[in-house]
UniProtKB/TrEMBL annotation:
<dbReference type="GO" id="GO:0005737">
    <property type="term" value="C:cytoplasm"/>
</dbReference>
<feature type="domain" description="NAD-dependent epimerase/dehydratase">
    <location>
        <begin position="18"/>
        <end position="288"/>
    </location>
</feature>
<dbReference type="InterPro" id="IPR050177">
    <property type="entry name" value="Lipid_A_modif_metabolic_enz"/>
</dbReference>
<dbReference type="InterPro" id="IPR036291">
    <property type="entry name" value="NAD(P)-bd_dom_sf"/>
</dbReference>
<comment type="similarity">
    <text>Belongs to the NAD(P)-dependent epimerase/dehydratase family.</text>
</comment>
<keyword id="KW-0963">Cytoplasm</keyword>
<protein>
    <recommendedName>
        <fullName>UDP-glucuronate decarboxylase</fullName>
        <ecNumber>4.1.1.35</ecNumber>
    </recommendedName>
</protein>
<dbReference type="InterPro" id="IPR001509">
    <property type="entry name" value="Epimerase_deHydtase"/>
</dbReference>
<keyword id="KW-0520">NAD</keyword>
<dbReference type="GO" id="GO:0071555">
    <property type="term" value="P:cell wall organization"/>
</dbReference>
<dbReference type="Pfam" id="PF01370">
    <property type="entry name" value="Epimerase"/>
</dbReference>
<keyword id="KW-0961">Cell wall biogenesis/degradation</keyword>
<dbReference type="GO" id="GO:0048040">
    <property type="term" value="F:UDP-glucuronate decarboxylase activity"/>
</dbReference>
<dbReference type="GO" id="GO:0042802">
    <property type="term" value="F:identical protein binding"/>
</dbReference>
<dbReference type="GO" id="GO:0033352">
    <property type="term" value="P:UDP-D-apiose biosynthetic process"/>
</dbReference>
<dbReference type="GO" id="GO:0046982">
    <property type="term" value="F:protein heterodimerization activity"/>
</dbReference>
<dbReference type="InterPro" id="IPR045869">
    <property type="entry name" value="Arna-like_SDR_e"/>
</dbReference>
Amino acid sequence: MATERFNLDGRPIKPMTICMIGAGGFIGSHLCEKILYETPHKILALDVYNDKIKHLLESESLPWGDRIQFHRINIKHDSRLEGLIKMSDLTINLAAICTPADYNTRPLDTIYSNFIDALPVVKYCSENGKRLIHFSTCEVYGKTIGSFLPKDSPLREDPAYYILKENASPCIFGSIEKQRWSYACAKQLIERLVYAEGAENGLEFTIVRPFNWIGPRMDFIPGIDGPNEGVPRVLACFSNNLLRREPLKLVDGGQSQRTFVYIKDAIEAVLLMIENPARANGQIFNVGNPHNEVTVRQLAEMMTEVYAKVSGESSLEEPTIDVSSKEFYGEGYDDSDKRIPDMTIINRQLGWNPKTSLWDLLESTLTYQHRTYAEAVKKAVAKPTSS
Ligand SMILES: NC(=O)c1ccc[n+]([C@@H]2O[C@H](COP(=O)([O-])OP(=O)(O)OC[C@H]3O[C@@H](n4cnc5c(N)ncnc54)[C@H](O)[C@@H]3O)[C@@H](O)[C@H]2O)c1
Ligand SMILES: O=c1ccn([C@@H]2O[C@H](COP(=O)(O)OP(=O)(O)O[C@H]3OC[C@@H](O)[C@H](O)[C@H]3O)[C@@H](O)[C@H]2O)c(=O)[nH]1
């Protein structure tokens, strides 16, 4: 039968029931797989959609049969939410609008989703003495201090001006008309609320700040499994361009820098948080890969090269094209210049380190994209448009 499992302090891990809100999304789908494949825990999976976890739900003969239960719930208005949180030992809240194309074009929905809709979750956990793992974002750091220095300042090379530390870095957003920051600001306020519930009412919480987690099942391919005019996050945008043999669009020259971490590495960190409450409670964790830093332009070049390898198709003569942020995202867009996570806290508390290089994670992800979408895209492109 199942062998006993132990946490980082050598204590046996007891099976728990986890209320996972937003379980049908990109991160949720990978977290559900990890929990079902490798632990005895039960999941109450809440979401409006379940396409990305269908493979975990459909067959009763699957070995985890009764350990996952899907509840189609919109947390904006559903009286079942409190009952499901009460039935669980731990709540993980992933639900959010989290695509930059929405932040400046649907700022109200963005603020409601990331702050107002998360309020009852925090309240029910606090009132019922339940543990909460809340998903925030690296965007709460906003811009680096270094970005305000003159372009030729040698201080820009000093890590003190750009490394992002949970307990020391300030949160630097743009002006109010730069509505891009509606998301970061809402996430910051919900972080402060969770933290205050911990300080004043003893809520046991962990806050996660993901730094660009990427991998299979991220977002959608426009016109295939998402709206034609939809703009997903950069991995899916570039995948879509590659699948359609179009140049990859570099917003404002693709000069912004990001660090990308493989979803499967990042999920290991979340499982450590779940199973080591004594080490994770009261903490805010950066979860990213400081070694996988590239400019968006470099990301586009690497994805072009990797896609040619995994698909066997030649690259375009002009693989990228520049586009202004106003044209691509509309009025009110702004950007984070650089995002390198400090890893001291997660290293010390959980001993976690990411393993996968950017090249390797792109190779497995683009292999997945090609297998999943190439045929459908070919058919869609071949379809005569009705006149
Ligand atoms: N992927 C990343 O790199 C990243 C980076 C920073 C922060 N995050 C945060 O992590 C969390 C999950 O991100 P993701 O990448 O999996 O996004 P995602 O959009 O794939 O998943 C979010 C899920 O929440 C669900 N949801 C949204 N509103 C809901 C509601 N009112 N009721 C029920 N379900 C609702 C959506 O249907 C979706 O399935 C978000 O809070 C996001 O802000 C992710
Ligand atoms: O086609 C594209 C898409 C995106 N980009 C650029 O690529 C960079 C990354 O864009 P993403 O869509 O992945 O989103 P960002 O990294 O800016 O923000 C993300 O970070 C963390 C999370 O909270 C969210 O998932 C999201 O806000 C941005 O500089 C963007 O302007 C392009 O140059 N071309």
